[in-house]
Amino acid sequence: MDFRRNIIHRLEEWKKDPYRKPLVIRGARQVGKTSAIKSFGSSFKAFAYLNLDKEADRKYFGPTFGAQETVSRICLDKHIALTDDTLLFIDEIQNSADAVALMRYFYEEMPGLYVIGAGSLLEVMMEEKKISFPVGRVQYLYMYPMTFEEFLEATGEKQALDLYRQVPVPAYAQETLSRLYKLYSCVGGMPEAVKRYVETGNIASVSDVYESLFTAYSDDVAKYARSPSEARVIRHIIDAAPGETGRRITFEKFGNTSLKSRDAGDALRTLEKAMLLYLRYPVTVWEPPFQCDLKRKPRLQFLDIGLLNYKLGITSTYLTDTPLGAVYRGIAAEQVTGQELLAADMSVLKKPLFWVRESSQSNAELDFLLIQDAAPIPVEVKSGKSGTLRSLHSFIERSGIRRAVRLYDGPIAREECVTAGGTKYELVNLPLFLAARCVDYYMEGF
């Protein structure tokens, strides 16, 4: 069962672009890169697939092999007739420095050939092997777990999907979409988990998938680590990270351990390169340029909400009447919101920002700060009343912004609000399921 992913549209645009370059797809293991590109490959007259985890496929790349010779050998062995509509897909490309280097020559010597490289541990392995993609000779796309939009399509909810894409979503559809979003937040966005749920209709059956994924990520540690001691630290971080998700973290004694700051920091940054988690550093200003303050404590975001639910043992909470915004003290809603916002732009790795004001008198922390045309869009994920948005009000009073977004367990609504300091602003209230669309609602009106 193959699901159509949103990245296919971007791949189709790339194919039509007369100025295209070889493309590199980045993403964590098991987010569906290989399946999506193979599906895209079926639209070509000829499609050559190489997996550089296999020695038999790595043999095609060597320091003395040019682009033309390499492609000719591949086509000969795989019985492919080279045409002007041929896609060469090099999977797990980080396993061959020669394959990475050759991307430049595909661009320079064979511009008519369509070439895609992909890998799950690109940044980790490239740093270890001291290799890099040729600057200016390749393009990049990023792939993440399935979004809510992709989940609706995968589960056959076509009517709900069509309504989700409307601005605004009709009032009669909002309750149904909220229910489906809670289901999505329960199952998560890992394609194998979604596939298992679609096939069985049983949420409990998804647990086996997530146990296998955690085992695979732990087994990958040997590829990340430079020593047995580093491997032990990384394994611990993988195990502890779900419990720290949504929190501002310190590296020293991370996850209630005796880990030193340097060891934990190195392990966390390694796992971030593998795209298993993200360290979101805050901004402290309210006007451009919005640059992260790396001296402040980051907030931890995990790869996928379904993996998080499984590791924390909270999956059954979704099967109760508990609103999504209240699951795991609101952290689940923030995680899935961050996940949706991260996946909204496949062109760059753009970790969602958040804003803080830290002083001896009082602190404020805004959940998300989106940037549109250099202007900030403050976003809070809250289930409470608008009067409880103290951090948002702090940002409003300092920034001059007079419109904000609240994602919550409720209907689409606009509200005129006043901060404690008397500043008037407009609050755009949106159901949690519209996290990926909140910029549209903020900018276009409804």
Mean pLDDT: 94
| Count of runs of 4 or more consecutive helical residues | 18
Structural class by sheet pairing and helices: alpha/beta
Strand arrangement in the largest pleated sheet = 8-9-10-11-13-12
Most strands sheet: 6 strands, mixed
Would you identify the regions where 5 or more consecutive residues have pLDDT less than 50?
none
Spell out the key features of this protein.
single chain; 446 residues; alpha/beta; six-stranded mixed beta sheet; five-stranded parallel beta sheet; 18 helices; globular
Q: What does the model show?
A:
With 446 residues, the chain is α/β, with parallel strands linked by helices. It contains 18 helices and 13 strands. It has helices spanning 7-16, 33-41, 55-58, 67-77, 97-109, 122-129, 148-154, 158-164, 171-187, 191-200, 206-219, 221-224, 228-244, 261-273, 305-312, 331-343, 390-399, 438-444, and strands at residues 23-26, 46-51, 86-91, 114-119, 139-142, 277-280, 299-302, 353-358, 363-372, 375-381, 403-408, 413-418, 424-431. The strands form 3 sheets. A 6-stranded mixed beta sheet has the order 8-9-10-11-13-12. Strand 8 (353-358) and strand 9 (363-372) form a beta hairpin.
